[in-house]
């Protein structure tokens, strides 16, 4: 049995678990990750080289900490070829998969580079046995762009979909079997969404119309592995808004898919949504297929194992920041010291030997410090003796009162007596519970503005235990 997993990990460096242990726990032979959020300079050895696996990355060339996908293959499922991008525009290796006729003829070079520049695709070529013959299987790991109906990014998203469709057509025309999997950033049917805002226009969105045509029921060449096995299963979601705790009430969407070319339908054994696996705002999806995979004896050049920084051919930055101690004994002549005097020794060290501790603010109000400050005030106002005495007595009285307050209660209580905290949060209308303060992150006139909302987890509008509709702007 061949098991393959897709998972939008929402930052591979944010994982609190050892990657090998995490991958082994998924029970998969090939693991396709999306939204790794790292560029090559951020990739460390423990992430790139996981024992028992080979890895293949595509990085965003536009900005750091953005997008990115990675495919990890068990050593017994090593690919024969690998490349990044939908059109191979950034591949410099000879062992790329090739076959770009349709996709290259339908886009300009500039357009293809723009699609590949965000690090949204990794392809690996595998082989499996079928009736004494060897069949080629291409696994396409994608993180499709996110865009709303009126979003300026929608044309880019649709162009990405079109290029993906054309590249799949090129592979299928060569007799290859294809698996497309990843975060497609579209929920296909009403059953795949917790609560659409506009039910009538839901199936008419450009993204859903594209997916309709890509799948078999719409005349396409692919099958949605989960819906093929479970066509009527409800609340089968793969993504939740974690900022609103929507996963608590399973108030989410299904936007992560494993799509199989029609020839693989007979091999499909199961497809499960691993909603019990946490660590991201998405959960993994795993498909099992009856395929006898043939491992390659040689890894493709795209493998991270061959990166210079991990192959021992390039010095790491850490070697330039080792601790060093330099001893210097300057001559008498340099420092202008008299003949016969003993030379002074000067030591320079990159390592700090002593730490200067910052004095507590409470020490300022000790009797010794207060007296010192009092004397300073008195001295500076020596021209006006009477005023100096009055100021001194006032300062002494104030300091004594504050010091007594601190000594009679905890430091936190003392500060509370000086600084007033924020006003208590309002109560929501639905549950009469303290609200949560949130901040608008979406670009627009209200960006960074704060508001109060019900603190409960988001849920269906009919769920009385879910978040109510209370909303009020916070006072500026």
TrEMBL record:
It holds the Pfam family Exo_endo_phos. The record marks 256 as: Important for catalytic activity. Its cofactor is Mg(2+); Mn(2+). The keyword Nuclease does not apply. The active site is at 143, 183 (proton donor/acceptor), 282 (proton acceptor). The record marks 282 as: Interaction with DNA substrate. Mg(2+) binds at residues 8, 35, 183, 185, 281-282. The record marks 185 as: Transition state stabilizer. One of its GO terms (cellular component) is nucleus. It catalyses: Exonucleolytic cleavage in the 3'- to 5'-direction to yield nucleoside 5'-phosphates. The keyword Lyase does not apply. One of its GO terms (molecular function) is double-stranded DNA 3'-5' DNA exonuclease activity. Coiled coil: none annotated. PROSITE patterns: AP_NUCLEASE_F1_1, AP_NUCLEASE_F1_3, AP_NUCLEASE_F1_4, ZF_GRF. SUPFAM superfamilies: DNase I-like. Residues 428-476 form the GRF-type domain. GO terms for biological process: base-excision repair. Belongs to the DNA repair enzymes AP/ExoA family. This is DNA-(apurinic or apyrimidinic site) endonuclease. The lineage of its organism: Eukaryota, Metazoa, Ecdysozoa, Arthropoda, Crustacea.
């Amino acid at each position: 049995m061949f098991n393959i997993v897709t998972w939008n990990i929402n930052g591979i460096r944010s994982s609190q678990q050892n990657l090998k242990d995490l991958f082994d726990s998924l029970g998969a032979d090939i693991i396709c990750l999306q939204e790794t959020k790292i560029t090559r300079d951020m990739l460390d050895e423990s992430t790139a080289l996981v024992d028992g696996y080979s890895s293949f990355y595509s990085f965003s060339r536009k900005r750091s900490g953005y997008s990115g996908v990675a495919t990890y293959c068990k050593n017994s499922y090593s690919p024969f070829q690998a490349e990044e991008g939908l059109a191979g525009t950034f591949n410099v290796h000879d062992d790329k998969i090739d076959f770009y006729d349709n996709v290259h003829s339908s886009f300009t070079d500039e357009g293809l580079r723009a699609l590949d520049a965000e690090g949204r695709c990794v392809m690996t070529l595998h082989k499996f046995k079928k009736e004494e013959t060897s069949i080629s299987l291409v696994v396409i790991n994608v993180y499709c762009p996110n865009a709303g109906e009126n979003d300026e990014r929608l044309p880019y998203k649709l162009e990405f979909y079109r290029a993906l469709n054309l590249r799949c057509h090129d592979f299928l025309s060569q007799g290859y079997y294809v698996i497309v999997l990843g975060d497609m950033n579209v929920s296909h049917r009403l059953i795949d969404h917790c609560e659409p805002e506009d039910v009538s226009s839901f199936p008419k969105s450009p993204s859903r119309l594209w997916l309709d045509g890509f799948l078999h029921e719409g005349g396409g060449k692919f099958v949605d592995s989960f819906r093929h096995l479970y066509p009527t299963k409800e609340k089968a979601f793969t993504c939740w808004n974690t900022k609103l705790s929507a996963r608590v009430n399973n108030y989410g969407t299904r936007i992560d898919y494993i799509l199989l070319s029609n020839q693989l339908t007979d091999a499909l054994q199961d497809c499960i949504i691993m909603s019990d696996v946490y660590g991201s705002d998405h959960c993994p999806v795993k498909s099992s297929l009856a395929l006898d995979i043939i491992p390659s004896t040689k890894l493709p050049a795209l493998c991270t194992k061959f990166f210079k920084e991990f192959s021992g051919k390039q010095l790491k930055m850490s070697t330039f920041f080792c601790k060093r101690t330099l001893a210097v004994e300057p001559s008498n002549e340099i420092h202008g010291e008299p003949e016969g005097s003993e030379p002074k020794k000067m030591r320079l060290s990159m390592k700090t030997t002593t730490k200067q501790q910052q004095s507590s603010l409470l020490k300022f109000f000790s009797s010794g410090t207060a007296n010192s400050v009092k004397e300073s005030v008195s001295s500076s106002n020596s021209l006006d003796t009477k005023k100096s005495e009055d100021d001194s007595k006032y300062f002494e009285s104030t300091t004594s009162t504050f010091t007594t307050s601190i000594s009679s209660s905890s430091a936190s209580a003392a500060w509370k007596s000086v600084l007033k905290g924020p006003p208590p949060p309002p109560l929501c209308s639905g549950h009469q519970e303290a609200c949560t303060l949130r901040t608008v992150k979406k670009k627009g006139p209200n960006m960074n503005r704060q508001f109060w909302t019900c603190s409960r987890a988001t849920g269906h509008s009919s769920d009385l235990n879910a978040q109510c509709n209370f909303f009020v702007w916070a006072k500026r």
